[in-house]
Amino acid sequence: MIYQGENLSVRYIADGIAELTFDAKQGSVNKLDKSTLVSLDEAISALQNQPQLKGLLVSSAKDAFIVGADITEFLGLFALPEEQLSAWLNKANNIFNALEDLPVPSISAINGYALGGGCECILATDLRIADSNARIGLPETQLGIMPGFGGTVRLPRVIGADNAMEWITTGKNYKAAECLKFGAVDAVVDSAQLREAALSMLNDAIANNIDWQSRRHAKQAPLALNKIEATMSFNCAKGMVSAKAGPHYPAPITAVKTIESAARCNREDALKIEAQNFIGLAKSEVAQALVGIFLNDQQLKALAKKAGKNAQPINQAAVLGAGIMGGGIAYQSASRGIPAVMKDINQAALELGMDEATKLLNKQLERGRIDGLKMGKILSSINPSLNYESIANSDIVVEAVVENPKVKAAVLKEVEQKVSADTIVASNTSTIPISLLAKDLARPEKFCGMHFFNPVHRMPLVEVIRGEKTSQETIDSVVAYAAKMGKTPVVVNDCPGFFVNRVLFPYFFGFTRLLQDGADFVQVDKIMEKQFGWPMGPAYLLDVVGIDTGHHAGEVMAKGFPERMGKTTEDAIDVMYQAQRFGQKNGLGFYAYTKDSRGKPKKDADPASYQLLSKVASQSQDYSSEQIIARMMIPMINEVVRCLEEGIIQSPGEADMALVYGLGFPPFRGGVFRYLDNMGLDKYVALADQYAELGPLYHVTDGLRAKAAAGETYYGKQG
Ligand SMILES: NC(=O)c1ccc[n+]([C@@H]2O[C@H](COP(=O)([O-])OP(=O)(O)OC[C@H]3O[C@@H](n4cnc5c(N)ncnc54)[C@H](O)[C@@H]3O)[C@@H](O)[C@H]2O)c1
Known about the structure:
Elements (H helix, E strand, L loop, with lengths): L2 E2 L3 E7 L2 E6 L11 H15 L6 E6 L13 H5 L3 H19 L5 E5 L2 E3 L1 H7 L3 E5 L3 E3 L13 H9 L1 H10 L2 E3 H7 L4 E3 L4 H13 L5 H9 L6 H19 L5 H11 L5 H16 L2 H25 L7 E4 L3 H12 L4 E4 L3 H20 L5 H9 L1 E4 L10 E4 L5 H14 L5 E4 L6 H4 L9 E6 L8 E6 L5 H13 L3 E6 L6 H17 L4 H12 L5 H8 L1 H14 L1 H4 L6 H7 L12 E5 L5 E5 L1 H7 L11 H21 L6 H12 L8 H8 L1 H10 L11 H8 L10
Parallel strand pairs: 3-4, 4-5, 5-7, 6-8, 7-10, 11-12, 11-14, 12-13, 14-15, 15-16, 17-18
Antiparallel strand pairs: 1-2, 2-3, 8-9, 16-17, 19-20
Helix pairs in contact: 1-3, 3-12, 4-5, 5-6, 5-9, 6-10, 6-11, 10-11, 11-12, 13-19, 13-28, 14-15, 20-27, 21-27, 23-25, 29-30, 30-31
């Protein structure tokens, strides 16, 4: 034994050959957390004192090599003063340099994932051999940062600048066979042969049959690119990357610029540039937001896992209503292995539902994600039906019929009589309170809300709504079912609109008020998309959701919260609705929808809608982008805060995830609470107070005011 640490050990396995094995004591995966780095440092120091050492094999005793750094440590690290952050990077780089500089050849035997720091670790050895299940990549830019342990230095010197820029800017991970083509690994073998093959390659290097010194040298020298090649390559990458990532996500372009600036440098100087640029990103609000989303997501996964322990098994589902939502829910359930009966009262709707499912599966077939057999299996596990008997054996029934409280109440009551006493019944209503729908049910404890978003197969969020009488077991079972469907469930308490629609409508009301005060909807859309970062501005979103749907839901919300959302005059949504401009679905809404010469759908500002809006608007008026953002966002932010204070949503993290996953709240802003924390609560209160005269939607809660006065944040200290 040469070294034994908490998470790794080094021992001689043959004459002069040592093996460094990552084997985390806690948990099922290896991570490059702070303590593992300390051990690695000690292990390499121990190896430096082994005069008889001839070669080093680096391996993992877990199912994966190293899954990456420990992201739970990130926010704490990033908050360190710059000098400390810089010292930490320097220390880590010294460790990887020491591994690279050992006087003997080294090889990594890569099983499973080698991501982030794990990938940077294997790049420090001279040779790399992967098993056929390995996946290698540098996902850091997806978290708003970039590789900081030499990834931007070594990868381009191993696989070429163009390839490295592709790897780093997309953050994708690559299968073993692809890695071999890129030259990121030297060989790929079956899992069973990995160790033996790695040892044999190492012996070849020890015998100097493989020129490991020159490979090592290439990683320590400037990039092998002449000036013209370099100019072409970096300019092209910069153009492509900034067009793709857009102005709100600086990490990918910073990574390209880092590789470019370090192209003529040796390893030490290149690492300095990397560290400097890494710190710039680590200190950014974008990194905080994206890391925050990752951590919140992990938290939600842990909650769903916990719920799974208390859940009833769900092996057969039924969906009532084969419309846009019901069809999507049945498809999603079936595609994740839970067969679903799809019941409607209308044969044409059933056919449409099956056609939709077939279309989605065909797309996956074309992309090679599934084969014909799998497609057949999924399709045959959706059972379209016109009669109630077909749902008798379901463990859960998800109701997705029209959004009408009377129809829903009648349907739900009927359903209860057709299924067993254990069957869970859930409603996909978007706005109607669950406790109201539960009023006439015989088993309200078995009933809750299960609110999917459109399109179901794409939107990750499911709101699980707890009615007054819903049992914990019902909630846990629906959470587990949603997670099994590949969705992210967030449990919320009951109220009109639940969480997501309750906070969306104040935003729409902010919008209609802005139009009333003379703003131009096209300008508002542009600012909310380009500057704030929403995927769609409010006018376009209303057109996509459907003005009729928005109009109806708006009325429900106004009735539910009359003191804030009630209205006394006609607004822009009313006039669009009355003119039967229902949005994208009938080609006319705020915009007019047509097709361009190539048959692609396009939208144009329509003079007719300006004409209509003149009914509700005073003279047109210019607003700055700050004013537009404030007037649009303050009502939403205040309502989100109210939902937390009223216990509709349990935590800032769950609220932010519901906003990002359910509404497409700009991920680089991390959600409303992250946005508030970054802005500073006192600054926000001062801003909102400037708009207080616009009415109660703009009034900050006492709770938020008190928190601001106390200098608190919503997330507190993390990491
Ligand atoms: N469309 C969305 O964006 C969206 C998003 C989230 C939630 N929702 C909610 O989902 C529900 C369904 O919405 P949708 O957009 O799919 O509506 P839809 O009009 O497309 O589909 C409703 C379907 O229900 C069927 N139906 C009506 N009465 C029935 C009954 N008694 N038994 C069985 N089927 C019956 C209709 O034939 C129709 O096929 C609504 O509560 C809606 O608020 C919709």
